[in-house]
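User: Please run a holo structure prediction.
Assistant: Happy to. Please share the sequence and the ligand.
User: Here you go; the ligand is 2-acetamido-2-deoxy-beta-D-glucopyranose.
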Amino acid sequence: MQFVLFLAMLFSLSFNALSLPVDSPNHLQGRSFKVQRVKRDGYVSHGPTALRKAYRKFGIDTANLNGVDVSDFQPFETKHATHVKAAKEDVEDSEQTGAVDATSVDGDVEFVSPVNIGGQTLDMNFDSGSADMWVMSSRLPKSLRNSRTVYEPSKSSTFEELKGSTFEIRYGDSSYANGPVGKDVVSIGGIEVAGQAFGLPTDVSQTFAEDTKSNGLVGLGFSSINTVTPEKQNTFFDNVAPNLDEPVFTARLLSNGVGEYEFGTVDPEKYRGVMANVSVDSSNGFWEFESAQYAIGEGPFHPITRAPQAIADTGTSLMMVSPEVAEAYYKQVKGGLYAKNANGYIFPCTSSLPSLSVAVGPGYSATIPGSFMNWSEVGTNTTTGETVCYGGLQSSGSSSMAIYGDVFLKALFVVFDKRGPSLGFAAPA
Ligand SMILES: *[C@@H]1O[C@H](CO)[C@@H](O)[C@H](O)[C@H]1NC(C)=O
Ligand SMILES: *[C@@H]1O[C@H](CO)[C@@H](O)[C@H](O)[C@H]1NC(C)=O
Ligand SMILES: *[C@@H]1O[C@H](CO)[C@@H](O)[C@H](O)[C@H]1NC(C)=O
């Protein structure tokens, strides 16, 4: 099945110009691009779970989100995940650049890519919002492996224990992974790091154990937030950057399809038009940038006051915006409301969804099509009998930063650049 979606990126030339969506030579609105979709096999990705995961990851307190318990909301049963075809490795000739598939899992809940550790290939989730690599291995009790393929250090001649080191990643109270740390040859898209450190959890929370599509995380945030003690370890990207043609990786995530991460090069074939180069504040360990204005549909730009900084996070499914942006957005959606018992913003599935533009840096904005804001069917309105949908756009609650996850990133071609550091945003080719 093939859908044609529309992406509009509005580039304004100065901060002031952003207060109105002016037509500039860089105005790309109305151009189309194609998104390949694969059949969903009846799987419905579970929005509230995706949102809870993100809230936990960033320790967000949702107690003071304004919302009501809606008595006529009846949630659907969560359906079981169906098989998603395995990603295949795509090795480039050059040793200094490499590309790897990013395969959508369960309706874009996450994207997984093949990673080779000591000769063993496992599907893992690349997470630009954390800085630990950890892999499910034979060190994990059988009860938590859930019949997945695990990495077996004893079968790798290049594995080394990092004696005395432990890692502990904790996303709030209920989601975690911890255990000893080892080193091995890690190869992604044909780019190799000889002594890459990674965690070998002896314990993970049920949320990780149940997610059998992913065998661990590859943190692509800044190494300053790596959790290994007594000595922090570098991420794969930090280790490999000096050997790359350019110290970058790029992300092209495709909704319900197979996109790509590429290391070491910015492929001019992958995007078109202007690339917005935005400076990054890495002091919190994230790919954090200024995003201080928003506009809904064709409307004017408004300032974002509660959380005017955002992070580009490939490891979060949804786009979580400053509370006032979420509130303003769903005011423009017929029947849109924040329902506490649905754990987020919901709307009748037949409502039309406007696009959302957010500033990226002081001089540019990116427009996310309304269709991307429709995460999944989530329940029934027992008054009207209508199907209710869950928003791909949700509030970032008490967080001091917005979290622009996959719902945002899927609309763009994104460059994560150590120079600066900076982020590049462009319309995908
Ligand atoms: C169900 O529909 C009624 C009537 O349109 C509306 O007032 C109510 O808020 C809706 N409830 C939900 C959960 O959407
Ligand atoms: C949202 O997606 C559901 C399927 O998941 C579809 O039935 C519905 O029509 C969509 N609604 C909008 C407004 O795009
Ligand atoms: C973006 O800006 C930074 C800092 O000014 C620079 O080092 C980097 O090369 C630029 N990136 C691109 C892709 O132009």
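The two ends are 19 Å apart (CA to CA).
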